[in-house]
Amino acid sequence: MILAENISKTFGNIHAVNDISFEVKEGSTMVLLGTSGCGKTTTLKMLNRLIEASSGNIKIGGKNIFEEKPEILRRGIGYVSQNNGLFPHFTVAENIAIVPKLLKWDKDKIHKRTEDLLHQLKLPSREFSNKYPDELSGGQKQRVAIARALVSDAPVLLMDEPFGALDPITRAAIRKEFLLLPELKRKTIVLVTHDVQEAFELGEHICLMDHGKIVQSGSPEELIFNPSGSFSKSFFSHQKLQLELSSLKLSRIWDSLPESQSGRSAEIESRDSFWYAMEILSDRTSRELVVSHTGDDSLKTVTFSALQDAYLEIKQNV
User: Fold this and answer.
1) pLDDT > 90: what percent of the chain?
2) Pair 84, 145: CB distance under 8 Å
3) CA distance linking residue 21 with residue 1, whole number of Å
4) N or C end of the chain: which has fewer CB within 10 A?
5) In which element (H, E) is residue 64 found?
6) DSSP 3-state of 207
7) Would you say 237 and 265 are in contact if contact means Cβ atoms under 8 Å apart?
8) In the sheet that 156-160 helps form, which strands lie side by side, from edge to edge?
9) How do the domains of the chain map onto residue ranges?
10) Section 107-122 average pLDDT
11) How far lies 37's CA from each of 5, 55, 77, 209, in Å?
């Protein structure tokens, strides 16, 4: 879906991004991870030409982005920034409707789509449609920004530190809601963050950047269990145990889990992490969780001890 080949960006004598290449498969989420100034936001903005690349090639959906007018390109790409970018003099509904109006959607279609997204994002239309950004909390503003990025149903979504301005509790809650959005299952997403835990929760593929270069790329599990070089090792060292558990998905041990006999509905999915399952189990009296698997009607159960045993076995085999 997205193919970047040898892209660079220079500002005078400064090489903000230096000859990097990557591919984002259709329907997957790639995270650009690194400290401030490493080039991750510049890389993201080159994908929708908010920043023009100095050299290299970028294709989205097989089309060369440099052969299209920037404003037309951006209408087909959802974009969420850290500061939400809402227009203060527009209502919530008006903010969400900006791109659909440019695309000349009719009013009924815009209204229905806006209502649907606000419902998914836990902002009931009756209560929030006519409010202005200054009347919303930080978390609510960011939900509206996400709705605006999703409203035109563009196949690609770019997110620049989308939860960075939120307090830790709100941030964690919105991340979990974000993962459950039905809309996202059809999107190709590139997300920028400096938050390692966020990258491991949301990303299927991570590009770790430093000084304008991609130092290492791979799945969260590959990066945390097989870091290449001193930078990768030191970058993940402070949260190593938590990140290891976050990188391991329940699908890894699906075949070894027992079938559920409880009659309860699914409480967690096989794509969720060991860490997330352990968090839930530690906050409740029940000793097991019912797990569902994508594309499979069967339900299985997982316990805290099963997760511990599986983690120790994986560690021994690394």
Assistant:
1) 60
2) yes
3) 14
4) C
5) strand 63-64
6) strand
7) no
8) 77-80, 156-160, 188-193, 29-33, 205-210, 213-218
9) 2-237, 248-317
10) 91
11) 21, 20, 24, 10
Residue with tokens 């004598």: 13
Angle at 98 between CA 92 and CA 100, to 5 degrees: 115
Q: The tokens 């879906």 sit on which residue?
A: 1
Pinpoint the alpha helices (H) of the chain. 40-47, 70-75, 92-96, 98-102, 107-120, 125-128, 138-150, 168-180, 196-202, 220-225, 230-236, 240-247, 274-282, 304-317
pLDDT for the residue numbered 133: 93
User: Looking at the domain that runs over 2-237, which CATH code has it been given?
Assistant: 3.40.50.300
Q: Report the C-alpha gap between 315 and 318 in whole angstroms.
A: 5
Whole-angstrom distance, CA of residue 107 vs CA of residue 129 = 14
Indicate the class that CATH gives domain 248-317: alpha beta
Beta bridge partners of 191: 31, 159
Q: What is the pLDDT of residue 51?
A: 96
The pair of three-digit structure tokens given for residue 289, joined into one six-digit string? 């969780």
